[in-house]
Design goal:
Helices cover 36% and strands 11% of the residues. It is an alpha+beta fold. A five-stranded antiparallel β-sheet has the order 1-5-4-2-3. Helix 1 packs across helix 2 (13-31). The radius of gyration is 30 Å and the shape is elongated. The two termini are 48 Å apart.
């Protein structure tokens, strides 16, 4: 909660303390009954809502929640017989009844809700909007969006297409008709490795480039529907480094082809591949169609793995 609220509000420790106090007030106000007046002193008045005295009173009420309100299966921590709490450390005080907090993987967290009839001390999305304000949340979202787009523009605007000249104009693919053998039992490890490649490529190609395309005018050529570039990716089986990389089928837009090559270079190395999917030269061959929409961008279904019979000795492209 502190991290989330701090990011949204942009305040320091004082702001976080205020948000935490407000959240506790909101949640206890929603879940707890009226505070009983235990042994009131003659002439004493109940604390006004929202004051420090009211917060202390509600905290005291939360500490007196009877343990039987916690589900029996959750009233005892693993390794603590009969539900007895461990002894306090660092000289912590044991004055007052213990707080009966239900234990379990879903007992705490954003929107988790109360467990076993206990007090719900969790925060819901509606509580955050109430505390922070919908206007402030919208403003923070717009600022973050602009920051991300600026980062994307800077990353790809600085790409020098000259370094990919060989991969764009003179690339001769290694995988050709007739020089492949059936994958056989290598299909399963190949499929898993391609999924790992996609997981590595997606954050760079999709979130750093395809998302950036939204900032371009709708009539821009790189936003043309179903646009893709087919590349051949040759990976060293042991190191996961790119050995060769080139365009097999161009999209017709050099800037888009360069962005695809640049994203793949940035995503490498990919990690060692299973020996079962390597060709005789110790390399892994994949031809892949990368699209300009975030749904089909680098899906594993558009990848074509191959095991080459007699790989040609080709010079490594720059």
């Amino acid at each position: 909660l502190g991290v989330l609220a701090g990011v949204r509000l942009g305040e320091g420790a004082v702001g976080l303390a205020r948000v935490e106090a407000a959240v506790l007030e909101v949640t206890l106000e929603r879940e707890s009954p009226a505070i009983p007046a235990a042994d009131p002193q003659p002439g004493s008045a109940r604390p006004q809502p929202g004051t420090a005295e009211a917060m202390r009173a509600r905290s005291a009420w939360a500490r007196t929640v009877p343990a039987e309100r916690v589900a029996p299966s959750e009233a005892t921590r693993p390794g603590e017989p009969d539900g007895e709490p461990p002894p306090p450390s660092d000289g912590a005080s044991t004055d007052g009844p213990p707080i009966a907090v239900p234990h379990g993987p879903l007992s705490l967290g954003l929107g988790a809700g109360a467990r076993g009839g206990g007090v719900d001390l969790n925060v819901r999305a509606g509580d955050i909007e109430t505390i922070v304000g919908s206007g402030e949340l919208d403003r923070a979202a717009r600022v973050d969006s602009e920051r991300r787009l600026a980062t994307h523009r800077q990353a790809f605007a600085a790409t020098d297409s000259s370094q990919y000249k060989e991969a764009l104009e003179h690339y001769v693919p290694t995988v050709k008709i007739g020089n492949q053998r059936p994958l056989g039992v290598a299909q399963i490890p190949f499929g898993k490795y391609i999924k790992d490649l996609a997981a590595r490529i997606r954050p760079i190609f999709v979130e750093d480039f395809v998302v950036w395309l939204r900032s371009l005018p709708s009539e821009h050529p790189m936003r043309r529907p179903h646009q893709f570039t087919r590349v051949e990716l040759v990976i060293d089986q042991r190191s996961g480094a790119i050995v060769r990389l080139g365009v097999v089928l161009t999209s017709g837009i050099t800037a888009f082809d360069v962005a695809v090559l640049h994203a793949l270079r940035r995503a490498a190395p990919f990690g060692a591949a299973p020996e079962a999917i390597a060709s005789g030269d110790g390399r892994v061959y994949v031809q892949w169609d990368l699209y300009n929409d975030e749904y089909s961008a680098c899906t594993p279904g558009n990848a074509r793995p191959s095991i080459v019979k007699t790989p040609e000795s080709a010079a490594t492209s720059p």
